Sequence to fold (835 residues):
Amino acid sequence: MSGSYYVPPQSKWPALGSLAVGVMMVSLGMQLVHGIGGLVMTLGMAAVLTVMWLWFRDVVRESRQGLYDAQMDRSFRWGMGWFIFSEVMFFAAFFGALFYVRVFAVPWLDGEGAKGVAALLWPDFTASWPLMNPPSESISGPREVLSPWQLPLVNTIFLVTSSVTLTIAHEALKEGYRNTARNWLIGTILLGVCFLVVQGIEYYEAYHHYGITLQAGIYGSTFFLLTGFHGAHVTIGAITLSVMLMRVMKGHFDRDDHFGFEAAAWYWHFVDVVWIGLFIFVYVL
Amino acid sequence: MAPKLPPRLPPQHPLEQAGEAAGPAGHAEAGYHHGPKGLLRWLLTTNHKEIGTLYLIFSLSMFFIGGIFALVVRAELFQPGLQLVQPEFFNQMTTMHGLIMVFGAVMPGFVGLANWMIPLQIGAPDMALPRLNNFSFWLLPVAFTLLLSTLLMPGGGPNFGWTFYAPLSTTYSPPSTTFFILSLHMAGISSILGAINIIATILNLRAPGMRMMDMPLFVWTWLITAFLLIAVMPVLAGVITMMLLDINFGTSFFNAAGGGDPVMFQHIFWFFGHPEVYIMILPAFGIVSAIIPTFARKRLFGYASMVYATSSIAILSFLVWAHHMFAVGLPLVAELFFMYTTMLIAVPTGVKVFNWIATLFQGSISFETPMLFALAFVVLFSIGGFSGLMLAIAPADFQYHDTYFVVAHFHYVLVPGAVFAIMAAVYYWLPKWTGHYPNERLGRWHFWTSVVGVNLTFFPMHFSGLAGMPRRIPDYALQFADFNMASSIGALLFGTSQLLFVWMIIKCVRGGEKAPAKAWDGAEDLEWTVPSPAPLHTFETPPRFQHQEH
Ligand SMILES: [Cu+2]
Fold:
């Protein structure tokens, strides 16, 4: 460590990025509250993605120019690691909500628990999970629930396999087999896309044939909250891996210097682990 | 804790020592810094000192905006009956006061100090990820412009208290609540990214030779704070996302009619909320642990125990959240569990207070302004801590819950606690930032008016609370009139005296007694080895840190 830590000069991307995030958020609010602003929101999101593209392009260029030393590499590792930890906590809140509802809220509405007063609200309510009959008549529950052993199982196989193929791609990269790495990475991305397609089919089924909707009481709420945010993360992960695919093909990565790839892989494995939790606690149990 | 440096100073840039200082950062010299000048320079900067300054200025502006909201509240409560504002607007004022002070003033204030001081205290050339640092800051003005603009929206701004309990904040909330949620999302992203940056900096950019247990306590407390931020800000994001869905998409998370539970909101919120109060106080502990040894001219007593105490507080903070919910109808076993874990926190906190006092013992103490604020912190924060212990007793809390006693408690830990610590830090490090000592006479005036103002405002609230005055109401029964009048007079005094603070800062930036590199003779940490004002770029070649036994 001899003063080689790279401190970037001024950059316009962060400030433009916060402006773009602001535009996106305000127009999202306008869309939700007043029903106008959808177009601006799309533009805002495009602006966010563009800024990210340009910002990361600067980072890639600096890295390719050899401006980064081993210490900088560690900064990126800590940064990505803690970012994933923050994502873990984001999902922890949602899982916490699911457990709280299943273990406490729904049984209490049926009179369980030391206090038992919540049962006075809807005396006829009977607790069950999945909750098919929400306490109030005004909310109609799902008609049927999805079997975990059909589409969700297929998706589990897709994601677990994709973690394996990604690891093979990584090993190939470490051994210097660029084409092999490329092929396995393509396979990984395709598995991710398959996952998303199947999830799309599942959502369609849920809405149109099973009566599982966002408005179908707490079962639909937790179902779409957990699977929806997970799906969004699969999408982000697949986009990131696609960028890494481009970089593999451009020859950006050395055998022992490819943290961009590793970071994307960490993220993908994290998304995979979340899915295992989902499969067990949302679908099976 | 007193790390000693070898006599060799890190390389300095001679041109930076020139007299004129254009900003609080005290460096506007051309040549070194390529890139735009003026406003654009602040918009595009990647420099930790400039970003730190931006954070501090932002925090100060929010402190005044939130303070004005508080004064509206206190003006209405000056006498019983409705005089100045409508109850609806009163609710918006209490809510916005809390939100602005917590997320806009105190948190960014500490992040600003972290930006300025952590690289200087660990001998780093900058923050680990400087562009991310700029992004974290510039999200804040966007977020808070949106938050403040909700006051002008149809139906008014958030009016459900800063804790935004469902269903007040979902079923019965104004339409602007969606915008409130989105602005809080942006502030949360800013906090998470800022915390990631701080952790990466501390773990990775310490000067060669500086071990973890050599770090100044401000760095240690910020390391733990950053961990708490990364752990709980996403939980806040999660709970407001569920609110957003309940409001806009008909989900039932906090709606018992659909099988959800409004009490679940409180659980998730306070899982974030209790660590959040430590996020606002741990860096304050670090600041006080820097200032007291400096002006007592003694090493900090019990450095290692301070580190362990801070860590235990952080761990315990995840196990106490439901002490905010004793009156909501928890099962008995939960009441007991959360009562005992909460009282356990008094142990590490007591260790800290003991260590500060032991540091003072037999020191050769002088009472410059930073020290005055730090000492006031120890005394007044302890009062807040003790009222916290009273609140932790579940059966007693049934009496205090949602009364002014609670308001007194958390304002004692936040105003003469967190805010005084930020002020102490500003007085302490201003010589490093500007190259000038703060005006001691002004500082003393500011200190004494603030201390009197704070106590006059919040001490009577203990009594009105114990006598049963509920919080968050614009009108009250006659027997509380005297206490409230005293509180309102105190608030006006405290608010006005902050103008002295601003005046002092402006004076200090523009001139004043020149400060040497080591501005306080008892100060030992690395930041005092670079010139005052600190040049724009410091420690570009890391200094060699030599370990010394504690
Ligand atoms: Cu608490």
